Amino acid sequence: MFDIPYIKLHFYTELMADTVMPETKVAALRGGMGEMLLRQNCIADKNCHKCHFYESCIVQHTFYSVMEKKPAYVTGDESVGYLIECMDRRTKYKKGSRFEFFLTLFGESIVFFNSYLQAFHQLGMAGIGKHHSRFRICEIRNTEGELLVLGSQVDMSRYVIHTISDYILYRKETLLNMNGKWTLTFQTPLSMKHRRYFMQEFYSEALVKGAARRIQMLNYYTGTESIFPEFAEYPEIDEQRVRKEAVRRYSGTHNSHITLHGISGKVVFQNMPEECLDYLIAGELTHMGRNTSFGFGKYVLRRETAL
Question: How many CB atoms lie within 10 A of CB 148?
Fold first, then answer.
C-alpha cells in the first residue's frame, strides 16, 4: 500500500527585480509551470481533447498525471503525480531576494524531472503573477538536502528516490519516542466533504479516510488497484481550533478569478490507533482533500501539549 516512490525537491531562486507577488503562490507556480510545459511540447494548439497524440503527450503525463484506471470517487482530472509547496507569504520583494518552494514528484512523474526543471527555468524567465515576477533558479536540493542542481550543473547521482514506506518508518520512530498529545496542524486550507457537506470543523474519521484516499489514488497512478482500507477505530478528538480561509486564484481555463474555500487550524487527539497513524504520516507528504494541486491540504503531525 505504501510502496509508492517519491522525491522531494527544494528549489532556491533569486528575484531578478523589485516586484510584488501574490501571498499564496502555489496556484501561480502551478499555472505557470503548465503554461511552460504547453509552450515547450504542445503540437495541437492546446486543444488536448482533439489531439491524436493525447495518450503519449508529455504534458498529459507531467501536468495532468493521466491514470488508466481511477477509484470510483475520482470524477475529474486529478494532478496526483506532483505537489508544489510554498509557505513564503511575503508579497513585496527586492531585487536579489531569495524565494523558495518545493516540488514533490510521485510515481511515473519522477522520470520527467528534466521536463519540470525546464518548465520552471522558462517560467523564471517569463515571470509569474500579474507583475510577471522574474526569477532564476540558483540551486535545487534533494530530499536529504544535498545539491542536485547548482546553476547550470545537474548531478543526477543525487537524484535519490525514496518510498512513502521509508518516510512512515522514519517519522514513526521520531514520533513514538516523543511524549505529549497527538496534534495535527493544517498549514494550508483543507477542502473536504464529510457526509456530503464541506467540513466546517474537523472530524477524525474524515481526516483518516482523506489521507487513505490519497494513498489509494497514488497506488492507482503507479498501476496498483488497491482496496480502500477498513479502520477498526479512529482517533478521538480532544479539542480543536478552526478558522475559515479563502484563496483567490486566476483560472486560465475559465478566464476569470475563482475563490477556493477551506478550513485550517489545529486538532488535538486523545489517542492514535497505529493503523490510522501510518496514513496520517503519509498524508504529510501527499496532502489531503480537494485542490491539493493548488497547495491545499498541507499539514504536519506532532506530539506536544494541548492547545
Answer: 24
DSSP-derived secondary structure letter, 15: E
Cell triple for residue 4?
A: 509508492
Q: Among residues 96, 87, 84, 89, which one has the least CA distance to residue 134? A: 96
| Cell 507531467 sits on residue | 62
Per the DSSP assignment, residues forming a β-bridge with 5 are: 163
Minimal CA–CA distance to 89: which of 264, 251, 304, 282? 264
Question: 29 phi and psi, to 5 degrees?
Answer: -65, -45
CA separation for the pair 224, 4 (Å, rounded): 10
Note the pTM of the prediction, 2 decimals.
0.93
Alpha helix ranges (H) inside the chain: 26-41, 58-62, 113-126, 164-176, 204-221, 274-286
In this structure, are residues 186 and 266 in contact, taking their beta carbons and an 8 Å threshold?
yes
Tens of pLDDT, residues 78-133 = 678 999 999 999 999 999 999 999 999 999 999 999 999 999 999 999 999 889 99
Give the mean model confidence (pLDDT) for residues 25-29.
93
CA dihedral sign of residues 171, 172, 173, 177:
positive
Interval 166-182: pLDDT, tens: 999 999 999 999 889 99
The distance of Cα 11 from the centroid of its chain, to the nearest Å, equals 14
Q: SS3 breakdown of the chain: % helix, strand, coil, rounded to 5?
A: 30, 30, 40
pLDDT tens for residues 188-208?
999 999 988 999 999 999 999
Asked whether 222 and 107 are in contact (CB, 8 A), the reply is: yes
Show the cell assigned to 198. 464541506
Amino acid residing at 54? Y
- For 203-250, write each residue's pLDDT tens digit: 999 999 999 999 999 999 988 888 899 999 999 999 999 999 888 776
